[in-house]
Specification:
By secondary structure, this protein is mainly alpha-helical. The protein has a single domain, classed as Formate dehydrogenase/DMSO reductase fold, CATH 1.20.1630. The protein has a two-stranded antiparallel sheet. The chain starts with a helix and ends in a 22-residue tail after the last helix.
Length: 347
């Protein structure tokens, strides 16, 4: 295996890590309004805070996987990076804006003790969870199926050219699987009535996730896959079906393992179907970007490989330690009263 292949696999691994970890973050953000519904406003607020606290210690660390993947893409395959970010400028900009809105909403939500303020922050968390989930699916589906690229390595397709049936199915798949992943994570990390509702939500989401996700994986394999990637389609299907059975039996620990396997299998399927291309051209196959014509120099890749070999175990180790430290379940009984600043007018 050459350095180009090693870094293609490394970038795939980084995106697997990002979608597995940030996937349940997005799912939690999508489902917060559902779990916050209650006749008693105070109890509803504590339920929303309990749900948000499940990702409180880890969500910002999970986003680092995307930053690392983007940096690795820029350094290892600069032509891929340039073509991707210029051709997909609008969807990637929307993802970035949505992520910024989500970050601000999570950070500022508890700073002010006002229900209107919190509702606006919850809206920001929802937008910052739904928009990236859908658009990441759309973006990766287009990368796999190919876009119009000319001889200058520039994407000539417009934004609405990216919204074909396969791409929209990819967006729906990402959103549904992340929502299921998030529901199972909430069930794993909470106790009491929130836990019970999370189990019920996971059961409801599991069937549509299997149908939509299975359809996308099968379409990917039949249209763009290789013989070697059939096993990934089977693995994703078995994992999603296992989630259906496990959530029904309230085995949220194993259900989370299998949603993780399902997300990872789908991402590896996408990269496996892409290889050795990195961005196929629908204009002319000769204009496609591959791991060879899009990569950096061998010396650059060699230096990157040594740096990654030293740093990667450290990063993975301290993030795993963080998850271990914050492994306890959360209940609404542990949520204190709000202590943010008041927006009320002085009497």
């Amino acid at each position: 295996m050459g350095l180009q292949e090693i870094w293609f696999v490394a970038i795939a691994f980084l995106f697997v890590g990002y979608f597995v970890l940030e996937g349940f973050d997005f799912g939690v953000g999508m489902l917060m309004p559902v779990f916050g519904r209650h006749a008693n406003a105070e109890i509803g607020e504590k339920r929303r805070r309990a749900v948000l606290n499940t990702i409180g210690p880890v969500w910002d660390g999970n986003e680092v996987w995307l930053i690392t993947a983007g940096g690795a893409l820029f350094a290892a395959f600069p032509e891929w990076y340039a073509t991707l970010f210029s051709g997909f400028y609008l969807p990637l900009l929307l993802i970035l804006v949505a992520l910024i809105v989500r970050i601000c909403a999570i950070e500022y939500r508890g700073k002010i003790d006002d229900p209107v303020w919190r509702r606006r922050c919850d809206l920001g968390i929802g937008i910052g969870s739904w928009v990236p989930s859908v658009l990441w699916g759309v973006a990766f589906a287009n990368i796999i199926s190919g876009v119009a690229i000319n001889e200058d390595k520039k994407v000539t397709a417009g934004f609405f050219d990216l919204l074909g049936p396969y791409a929209l199915l990819g967006g729906a798949t990402m959103a549904l699987v992340f929502a299921l992943h998030g529901a199972v994570f909430i069930a794993l990390k909470t106790s009491g009535d929130v836990h019970e509702d999370a189990v019920k939500m996971a059961v409801r989401l599991s069937v549509p996730a299997v149908v939509v996700g299975g359809g996308f994986a099968l379409w990917t394999q039949l249209a763009y896959g290789k013989n070697r990637t059939w096993i990934l389609v089977g693995l994703a299907a078995v994992a999603l079906i296992a989630v259906v059975a496990l959530t029904a039996r309230v085995r949220e620990g194993w259900a989370f393992v299998f949603t993780t396997i399902a997300v990872a299998a789908v991402v590896v399927l996408l990269f496996g179907s892409l290889f050795p291309n990195v961005m196929p051209s629908t204009t002319d196959a000769a204009f496609s970007l591959t791991i060879d014509n899009a990569s950096s120099s061998p010396y650059t890749l060699k230096v990157m490989t040594w740096a990654a070999a030293f740093m990667a175990p450290i990063v993975i180790g301290y993030q795993a330690w963080t998850y271990w430290v914050f492994r306890q379940r959360i209940s609404t009984a542990q949520i204190p009263d709000s202590i943010g600043l008041s927006l009320g007018r002085p009497s």
